[in-house]
From TrEMBL:
It comes from the Eukaryota. Residues 20-52, 111-156 are annotated as: Disordered. GO terms for cellular component: membrane. This is Syntaxin-5 N-terminal Sly1p-binding domain-containing protein. Transmembrane segments: none annotated. It comes from Hemiselmis andersenii. Residues 115-140, 147-156 have a biased composition (Polar residues). Coiled coil: none annotated. One of its GO terms (biological process) is vesicle-mediated transport.
């Protein structure tokens, strides 16, 4: 398996294990489980902080993409920034992969810590979909820039 296709899902697994333990109630001997009560304020804070960081990271990736777009559109045969384009493309690819993983983690937090049919659940779903949409637009723009670069190289 290639390195790019391996995902660390440890955090998601641990969140799932905790959720199952929380739902199971007392242990088999009747003693109550050592269950931490989930503080809704802390839950919302954790979700909001994670979502805000993802939003900032998407914006930073979009800034890198703007720089890549400018470089890719240059048609100078003698001053071709191929190394810089390759490096920036690699960095953006890594950013998009990491952001996809972060969005999956955010979804796990959302599913495990928000009660269904609540206003906070609806808000969290909306935030998550918005972030996914922004990341999708960024990834599509990235693909377009790479296509532009390929076309420019073919015409030289």
């Amino acid at each position: 398996m290639s390195e790019g296709s391996v995902r660390d899902r440890t955090r998601e697994f641990m969140l799932t294990v905790q959720a199952v333990r929380d739902r199971q109630g007392p242990t088999s001997n009747g003693a109550p489980r050592n269950v931490k009560k989930v503080d809704p304020v802390q839950t919302r804070k954790r979700f909001s902080e994670k979502a805000a960081q993802i939003g900032k990271d998407i914006h930073k990736t979009a800034d890198k993409l703007a720089k890549l777009t400018k470089l890719a559109k240059s048609k100078s045969l003698f001053d071709d920034p191929a190394a810089e384009i390759a490096e920036l493309s690699y960095v953006i690819t890594q950013d998009v992969q990491r952001l996809n993983q972060d969005l999956e983690d955010l979804g796990a937090i959302h599913r495990l810590e928000n009660p269904p049919n609540s206003q906070s659940n609806e808000h969290a779903t909306s935030v998550q979909k918005s972030l996914q949409s922004h990341l999708k637009q960024t990834a599509e723009s990235f693909a377009g820039v790479l296509q532009t670069r390929s076309e420019n190289l073919q015409h030289q």
